[in-house]
């Protein structure tokens, strides 16, 4: 019994890490059994990330561990080591670092490790990781180890189907639209379809072996959804399908809530909004929908709570936000006699009516703003991270 972890095997020809693991599991010698594999998303800003920054792990049971090690050694040398240095072309919009695959074996799973919770929230190195029983390869070992030690506090499931090899180099995927619509309406599936645009969210856009990955809050739901999609005539044939237990929709990447007072906002390109707070700069990105709109409505003095990721020291990328206090709007008072807006006479001198010259010592009137207090907002469904937990699931955020 032990744990195998694998990461950073994405290349154009050999596909994504989920498919690499699937093939490895199919090639296991007789007598070795595998549990449901894990698909673990890690810190989104990690350098040299693979697509979606995911690593995989699986528990293997065997009476003959030396034989399994022999198999892993041979499999590594024949299939995985040669991937080193290849560049994935699956996502042309993003600069991809050359593949540096890693594989690890733990005869016993380290029980008390915070390596996962750190690897999902910040940059980690291999030196800080628990030491595997055996280890092959390079940088990929970081994610591989994190996937093995993932404690599975909050989990969801994803059923991944891989398309025929001759289709890998194309970006078009045929998955029955009606079946997607049906599956998206099931109670325990999520992130299947964008409710606004009706666009399917289950297929990647680039060139890779994945036909779709359909998500569920239970293993049965993910399996049933995949079966429904695959039964449909309009769905193209596949090589195989496998269900992964995942940390998607766990919010594991988010630290505790941040609260601060707004000093000012700056609207940047495409509406991206920088909120200057007493605790540093918090960013609401152009794609973040309601988060960006809320950010643009802020006034100095407002108090806000956010969940987000620290991209660099002091700079937080907001993922969830609410306003806990809205500073009243300050306007010049109106003259009670002639209804004109009064004007300031000078520093600490009060205001005066330009018409009847009436004076008033209080230079500002305060107007309450129409702001929904303590209402959390999140980015639209297609702009959320794999790790983001939908607000509507949450109880601990609704305080
Ligand atoms: Zn007046």
Concise overview:
By secondary structure, this protein is an alpha+beta fold. It contains seven helices and 20 strands.
Which helices and strands, and how do they pair?
Elements: E1 2-7, H1 17-26, E2 33-34, E3 38-41, E4 54-61, H2 65-80, E5 102-106, H3 115-119, E6 134-137, H4 140-149, E7 156-163, H5 177-184, E8 189-190, E9 210-216, H6 219-231, E10 238-246, E11 258-267, E12 273-277, E13 280-284, H7 290-296, E14 303-312, E15 315-325, E16 329-331, E17 343-344, E18 351-352, E19 359-360, E20 365-367
Parallel strand pairs: 3-10, 13-15
Antiparallel strand pairs: 1-4, 1-5, 2-4, 3-4, 5-6, 7-9, 7-10, 8-9, 11-12, 11-14, 12-13, 14-15, 16-20, 17-18, 18-19
Bound molecules: zinc ion.
Any overview of this molecule?
This protein has seven helices and 20 strands. It is of the alpha+beta class and 399 residues long. The protein has three domains: 2-149, Alpha-Beta Plaits (2-Layer Sandwich), CATH 3.30.70; 156-246, Alpha-Beta Complex (Glycinamide Ribonucleotide Synthetase, Chain A, domain 4), CATH 3.90.600; 258-328 and 369-393, OB fold (Dihydrolipoamide Acetyltransferase, E2P), CATH 2.40.50. Strands 1, 2, 3, 4, 5, 6, 7, 8, 9 and 10 form a ten-stranded mixed beta sheet that branches. Strands 11-12-13-15-14 form a five-stranded mixed β-barrel. It is elongated and about 95 Å long. The model has no long low-confidence stretch (mean pLDDT 90). The structure holds zinc ion. Residues 335, 337-338, 340, 353, 355-356, 358 line the site of zinc ion (ZN).
């Amino acid at each position: 019994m032990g744990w195998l972890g694998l990461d950073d095997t994405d290349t154009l020809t050999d596909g994504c890490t989920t498919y690499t693991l699937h093939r490895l599991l199919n090639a296991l010698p007789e007598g070795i059994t595998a549990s449901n594999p894990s698909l673990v998303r890690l810190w989104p800003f990690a350098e040299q990330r693979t697509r979606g920054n995911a690593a995989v792990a699986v528990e293997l049971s065997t009476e003959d561990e030396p034989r399994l090690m022999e198999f892993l050694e041979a499999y590594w040398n024949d299939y995985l080591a040669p991937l080193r240095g290849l560049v994935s072309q699956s996502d042309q919009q993003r600069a991809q670092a050359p593949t540096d695959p890693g594989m690890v074996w733990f005869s016993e799973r380290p029980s008390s490790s915070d390596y996962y919770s750190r690897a999902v929230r910040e940059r980690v190195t291999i030196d800080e990781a628990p030491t595997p029983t055996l280890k092959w390869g390079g940088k990929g070992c970081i994610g591989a180890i994190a996937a093995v030690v993932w404690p599975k506090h909050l989990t969801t499931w994803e059923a991944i189907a891989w398309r025929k090899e001759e289709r890998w180099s194309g970006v078009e995927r045929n998955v029955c639209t009606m079946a997607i619509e049906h599956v998206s309406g099931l109670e325990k599936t999520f992130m299947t379809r964008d409710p606004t645009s009706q666009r399917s969210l289950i297929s990647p856009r680039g060139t890779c072996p994945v036909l779709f990955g359909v998500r569920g809050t239970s293993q049965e739901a993910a399996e049933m959804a995949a079966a429904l999609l695959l039964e449909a005539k309009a769905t193209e044939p596949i090589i195989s399908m496998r269900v992964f237990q995942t940390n998607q929709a766990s919010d594991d990447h988010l630290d505790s809530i941040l609260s601060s007072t707004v000093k000012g906002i700056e609207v940047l390109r495409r509406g991206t909004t920088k909120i200057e707070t007493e605790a540093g700069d918090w960013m609401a990105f152009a794609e973040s929908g309601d988060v960006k709109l809320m950010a643009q409505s802020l006034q100095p003095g407002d108090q806000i709570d956010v969940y987000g990721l620290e991209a660099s020291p002091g700079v937080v990328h907001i993922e969830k936000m609410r306003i806990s206090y809205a500073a009243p709007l300050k306007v010049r008072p109106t003259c009670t006699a002639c209804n004109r807006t009064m004007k300031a006479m000078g520093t600490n001198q009060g205001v005066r009516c330009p018409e009847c010259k009436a004076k008033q010592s209080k230079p500002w009137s305060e107007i309450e703003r129409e702001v929904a207090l303590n209402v959390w907002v999140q980015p639209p469904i297609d702009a959320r991270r794999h790790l983001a937990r939908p607000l509507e699931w949450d109880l601990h955020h609704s305080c």
